[in-house]
Design goal:
There is one protein chain. Helix content is 24%, strand content 20%. It has 154 residues and is α+β, with helices and mostly antiparallel strands. The protein has a single domain, classed as 2,3-Dihydroxybiphenyl 1,2-Dioxygenase, domain 1. The longest helix is centred in the N-terminal third of the chain and has 11 residues, at 19-29. It is globular and about 55 Å long. It starts with 18 loop residues before the first helix and ends in a 13-residue tail after the last helix.
């Protein structure tokens, strides 16, 4: 059953003691436009950054480990916050992040699911995966192994 009023926006709220570094990274380095946001004064600070279309990726620990393997990244600790951002050019996004001080976790690599992925360590120990789509969703849906969870054999 489809909900009659599905969500209109996903907002990921990240509490950080490295606020200035985080704003600089996401707004200035990654180019996410800042939206007006309300805060009072002093240390009450907030920045709402537009990140384009949002999706939620639910994954079992096995799948998370498989992605680590595909990306050539070390195993993530359970509960590690990982943000994945679709970009036009993974290599350029990774270079910009590294030029701004982000450490490379995994270099750009073409994945079996036809994306170019790379992972960096962002401010506050957040892992940021950049991914560049190499085919459309329609093309992907026609390939073996791509289906929805309810249609997947168990």
């Amino acid at each position: 059953m489809t909900h009659p009023d599905p969500p209109r926006q996903l907002r990921l709220i990240i509490e950080t003691t490295e606020f200035d570094d985080a704003v600089r990274f996401f707004r200035d380095v990654l180019g996410m436009p800042e939206q007006p946001a309300f805060a009072t004064e002093g240390d009450d600070r907030v920045s709402i950054l537009h990140a384009g279309v949002a999706t939620i990726e639910l994954a079992t620990p096995t799948h998370v480990h498989n992605i680590d393997d595909v990306e050539g990244a070390p195993r993530s600790a359970p509960g590690t916050l990982r943000i994945a951002l679709e970009v036009a050019d993974t290599v350029a996004a990774t270079k910009a992040a590294q030029d701004a001080g982000a450490a490379e976790i995994a270099p750009p690599i073409e994945t079996p699911f036809r994306t170019i992925n790379a992972r960096v360590q962002g401010p506050g120990n957040w892992q940021v995966t950049f991914f560049q789509e190499l085919e459309t969703l329609e093309e992907r849906a026609e390939r073996d192994g791509f289906t929805t969870d309810d249609a997947r054999p168990r």
